[in-house]
Design goal:
This protein is an alpha/beta fold and 242 residues long. The chain is built from 9 helices and 7 strands; from the N terminus they run αβαβαααβαβαββαβα. It comes from Glycine max.
Length: 242
């Protein structure tokens, strides 16, 4: 980012940012990992936690794409692997997290989302953090029954051109299968079908349960009742982190 001349920044924006930094300076550092299957509500809670505790949000998929786009040394390596159709190595991903953590926005800590997915990744992450003299503070486990997820996810229908979303149970359209505004047909995303969800959940349980065990042994896991309405989950998160 080019250095902006502060004279050109509106006073209100400057004041808002100063107040935010002042508020943040008194917050304790927090390094959090969010674990949960698709549809468990991590995406709803992470921006709330991020703002409340002044953390940066490290979504490994986005970070990899950003590193590739910015052609950082690690990004170049990651692109080579992807071009060959290989998985990006754990060391590379940890390296990219390591790089990202040095940004000013991460000085109060971070929320890691989508990583670690395996115990080996968790160990490598621990090693890297240890080298920086910090450690993971809490692992928030968005625990939820597969059957509830299936209802949540397979009930989602979308009006493709506007992005309006409906849910057969929680927010149904006035006429089944039809957009309220245009009367055009609704579609279901490929990922939102029961068959795809079943595969994603199987992979999630197989890969991630050992990660939860790994952090449980360290006494870091907080199990959230992710089936509750979002506001109640937020209250649970605040209790766990206070």
């Amino acid at each position: 980012m080019a250095n902006t001349n502060l004279d050109d920044v509106p006073s209100l924006d400057l004041m808002t940012e100063l107040l935010r930094r002042f508020k943040c300076s008194s917050k304790p550092d927090k390094r959090l990992i969010l674990i949960g299957p698709p549809g468990s509500g991590k995406g709803t809670q992470s921006p709330i936690i991020k703002d409340e505790y002044c953390l940066c949000h490290l979504a490994t998929g986005d970070m990899l794409r950003a590193a590739v786009a910015a052609k950082t040394p690690l990004g170049v390596k990651a692109k080579e692997a992807m071009n060959k159709g290989e998985l990006v190595s754990d060391d590379l991903v940890v390296g990219i997290i390591d790089e990202a953590m040095k940004k000013p926005s991460c000085q109060k800590g971070f929320i890691l989302d989508g990583f670690p997915r395996t115990v080996v990744q968790a160990q490598k992450l621990d090693e890297m953090l240890q080298n920086q003299g910090v450690k993971v503070d809490k692992v928030l486990n968005f625990a939820i029954d597969d059957a509830i997820l299936e209802e949540r996810i397979t009930g989602r229908w979308i009006h493709p051109s506007s992005g309006r979303t409906y849910h057969t149970k929680f927010a149904p359209p006035k006429v089944l299968g039809v957009d309220d505004v245009t009367g055009e047909p609704l579609i279901q995303r490929k990922d939102d079908t029961a068959a795809v969800l079943k595969l994603r959940l199987e992979a999630f349980h197989k890969q991630t349960e050992p990660v939860i065990d790994y952090y449980s042994k360290k006494g870091l896991v907080a199990n959230l009742h992710a089936e509750k309405p979002p506001k109640e989950v937020t209250v649970e998160v605040e209790k766990v982190l206070s």
